[in-house]
Amino acid sequence: MRGILKLAYKLLVNDKAKFTALIVGITFSVFLMVQMMAMFAGILNRASATVLNVGAPIWIMDPAVQTVANTIGMPDYVLDAVRSMQGVNYAVPFYSGGALVKLADGTYQSVTIMGLDDTTLFGRPPLLEGKLEDIYGENAFVVVKDTEFRKLENPSVGTQFEVNDNRGVIVGIAEVSSASLFGVPTLYTTYYRALQYLPNPRFTISYVLAEPKQASDIPRIKQQVQALGYLALTRDEFMDRISDFYKYQTNIGTNILIMTVMSFIVGLSISGQTFYTFVLENLEKFGALKAMGAKSRELISMILFQASFTALAGYGLGIGLCALLISLARVRLPDYAAMITYWDLVFAFVMVVIIAGVSSYFGVRRVLRIEPFEIFRG
Questions:
Q1: Those residues with Cβ within 8 angstroms of residue 292's Cβ, 6 or more apart along the chain or in another chain
Q2: Is there a domain that residue 165 lies in?
Q3: 131 lies in a domain?
Q4: Alpha helix positions (H), the chain
Q5: What local confidence, expressed as pLDDT, does residue 250 receive?
Q6: pTM to 2 decimal places
Q7: 3-state DSSP assignment of residue 95
Q8: Above 60 in pLDDT, residue 375?
């Protein structure tokens, strides 16, 4: 069998034109599939940036909330009720809202303002510059240094601006694990300062952030919150809820799916047609091997080996090309959100296996039908 596979390899690589066409077809098919899925994974990750950065174990919200950016205010009694629930270690209010900031040169910039609990500052990001206690000072804000930081003219500690005709001062520069999806800078301040500076409806609590005493208390907390008429989700459940919204209730998921299917069809058609042509051109060699006593299973092994070899080589090159271009794009475009996940690699591998299987199927059928006397008669 080893000699048969070695012969199959030589037959494959000696036809450099066909071999190159097979590799290129599968490479670009994998590249396009992984690139599309990586873009979608990056979008979903950025969409859950606030949930990741704050890191609360349980998020309590209005049941109509679909994404972390589309908040629906809750009355103050919800916070008091959650704090008194069995199994709750602590609970704090959290504010999230948008505002227009007037910069020193007179231009305006949209920002997202996060209001942290005045007592605990739960959910605060780690600071690169400044002191955390300065956030209690008059008009104090902390700015996040991410890809949108430059839109605020690269502020430093002491930079002043205006929010709804109120003076604001940068007292700290922070870093977060994930940048926002929506392309706006993020400012942190205390909860009550956010309420004072921004116009708000009657109910002002965007979310109640809670921590259970034990993981086993989470189902009980959910039931008690549901009895109030609100929804309690763990961090992972909230992220899944956000992902489902972008997958099924926006056009993003549909468009990515269509592009991925098209990439698969292109790769399948190119590799399938090229591989079948390769088999036809080498039909005499397969017939000669059959006449010399090669068994059907050995010929099948040759075809499967050739298809698998080209598929795996194209898979590796496609993944490498995608990773390289994403790395280069991030250097030139800091806002670029694409990221390759484990499931992207698994999905692309399954698609490549299907491409190899379909390609080899037609080749195997043609080789098994050949009769040695037809070769020698020609």
A1: none
A2: yes
A3: yes
A4: 2-14, 16-47, 49-54, 76-83, 191-197, 218-228, 235-248, 251-281, 283-291, 296-332, 342-369, 372-377
A5: 79
A6: 0.78
A7: strand
A8: no
